[in-house]
Amino acid sequence: MFETWLPLIAGFVLLVAGGELLVRGAVQAAERLGVSPLVIGLTLVGFGTSMPELVTSVQAGLSGSPGIAYGNIVGSNIANILLIGGISALICPVIVAEAALRRDAALMLGVAALFAALALALPMGRLLGAGFVAGLVAYIVMVIRQERTTGEHGAIHDKSAALLQADPGLGAPSRRRGLILPLLLALAGLGLVVLGGALLVDGAVALARAFGIGETVIGLTIVAVGTSMPELVTSVIAALKRQGDVAFGNIVGSNMYNILGIGGTTALIAPGAVPSEITAFDAPLMVGVSALLVVFAATARRIDRWEGLALLAGYGAYLYLLWP
Questions:
Q1: What backbone torsions phi and psi does residue 323 show, to the nearest 5 degrees?
Q2: SS3 of 273, please?
């Protein structure tokens, strides 16, 4: 039995460790190339916690396991809202910044609805994937321009801030000058991430076969929660530090990255249809819980503890319905 779980556990460990090295090396290299801290924070650092989902979904798509590939994306978004949002609000009521609600949360809901509708009607081909990635790039460019002109922070900034709070050394300027060491660090991290993603997908497939459970269910639950661990850690740390606005922005920003960046990249590299189980139930549910998060956030600009408890109860009910 342990042999069945070992590749899965090893994959999770390598994904997290490799993602840390990859982001740290990339950030140091960008600093030495003169890239501004704002751009580094909103791109390299902000994307750091989404690396496990990205590599896992791409690896699963290439391995012919779309249930794990898209189950990971949709399941991660559901877990981000119900599980991570619920835990964060229970620790400390989540204060919602105006910009994060008005611009980012509404956009997150729209992107979730667009994905659910397109996945139901069309296979996720390269054209759709390119459109999703282009949408993420346009969104990041818009946010960088707004932050430079108005100083108004939003979800994508908070996603970066949450990771920097969890790992303060990541944002500390380096005194060294050379590019070789940061590039080697980034390459080593990339290698670990790719290996971890392969182990995780192989382990998930083996687990599904051993227990007679569909790959989609494994992707929506075990794989999704495992790859969302960085978001869970960073959001909990933000909540413990009484910075609930960062926790909220981290969730919203991660969900945007998951659909536009990870969903788009997966479709570009390994195009294919989203499994019917996901399009019929889980994707609409993702839209529903996204709307619920927006409603909770819009009431008094905060998510209270009782609302966090309701979110957690919702995740428990989801697992009960999904797991055979």
A1: -80, 130
A2: coil
Cβ proximity of 216 and 68 under 8 Å: yes
In the chain, what are the domains?
2-322 (1.20.1420.30)
| Residue 301 buriedness (CB in 10 A; 0-12 / 13-18 / 19+) | middle
CA distance 53 to 223: 9
Q: For residue 148, count CB atoms less than 10 angstroms from its CB and return exposed for 0-12, middle for 13-18, buried for 19 or more.
A: exposed
Q: What is the total residue count of the chain?
A: 324
Q: How far apart are CA 246 and CA 163, in angstroms?
A: 10
For residue 303, the SS3 value is strand
For 35-83, the pLDDT digits (tens) are 766 666 666 666 777 888 888 899 899 988 899 999 999 999 999 999 9
Give the list of residues 6+ apart from residue 48 with CB closer than 8 angstroms, or none: 19, 20, 22, 23, 163, 170, 230
pLDDT digits (tens, 9 = 90+) for 206-227: 888 887 888 899 889 888 888 8
Please spell the DSSP secondary structure of 99-133, one letter per residue: HIIIIIIHHHHHHHHHHHHHHHHS-B-HHHHHHHH
